[in-house]
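Posted in: Structural Biology > Protein-Ligand Complexes

Title: Requesting predicted complex, 3-isopropylmalic acid in pocket

I'd be grateful if someone could produce the 3D structure tokens for the following input. Sequence and ligand are given below.
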Amino acid sequence: MTTYKLLLLPGDGIGPEVMTEVQKVADLLGQAGIAQFETEQGLVGGAAYDAHGKAISDADMDLAQAADAILLGAVGGPKWDGVPYEVRPESGLFRLRKDLTLFANLRPAMCYPALADASSLKRELVEGLDIMIVRELTGGIYFGEPKEIIDLGNGQKRGIDTQIYDTYEIERVGRVAFEMARKRTNRVTSSEKRNVMKTGVLWKEVITALHQREYADVALDHQLADSLGMQLVRQPKQFDVIVTDNLFGDILSDVVAMLTGSIGMLPSASLGEVDPKTGKRPALYEPVHGSAPDITGKGIANPIAMINSFAMCLRYSFGLGEAADQVEMAIANVLAAGLRTADIRHGIGAIASTAQMSAAILVELKKLLG
Ligand code: IPM
Ligand code: MG
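-- Reply #1 --
Done. Output follows.
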């Protein structure tokens, strides 16, 4: 049985609560003989700031570099609103993304039939929805320099952020999107604002050239990011894979998440380049939902996004596609049977706690593992 090294970074808010539940899933797969997971724990975000005055320590970065995959809960919360910008909780996440070059952020959005009524859109618009957003994660306005506020000396200040993209950055994330599309329904929508931004002009040019050169079998279209936002709430099922930059991807993935009924459901994977020598690919898996300070400590957070993130880890980092299918199936079965955490409850019915939801998923998974 192969042993995989997992680094667990529970982080802040509901992060530790959902991390506790996903560990039970890993343990069950271990007991079933699927694979052995060797886990280590580290601190990230506000939790790391409280302990070391930094949003992630160098020692935990070393663990991250050495791990086969990282599972992260969430970072941030009002407690750290006043901390210096350089060490705010989110900076831990950015260091992980940047130092491990996790340039491709996969954010799948599927609408479970059982949850179609929890969506803010009509059932017929979202039932069966299956979109994969591929967000560029290590470039653009998140990291471009200069990034500063300068004092103009006349009572005015100037805030500056810089959007920068080089050809290789667009090309490598484009490649991930085209490869992904080939395993799905073979369609890619590339999105930018070429009507306003030079990076948008280059984005389209690079994606078009890559398509012609290597992926002409995939259907490609280009949409301005504002118009794509509109189309996503008008007729979301028209899309398969969407590839876009860091900032547009951040915004559009929240929109798409909400179409599925709850942001508490959705996983993400952040992947780097495969090392040709070791075959290893740096990877971090985290729920899209964030730290949810409003429900922290109440035991009611939905653990599904975290468990789904682990399923992505099984699939993309460990090649355990069948086990990933089984975890996803266990979740779908529990939802179909009517169990709901507070965030996905539509109308009346009992509310399951975090622990009850994961316990039900474990029972289903045990059955499926045989
Ligand atoms: C995300 C989050 C982060 C981002 C925050 C927490 C900095 O919104 O992963 O989508 O903007 O990238
Ligand atoms: Mg976001």
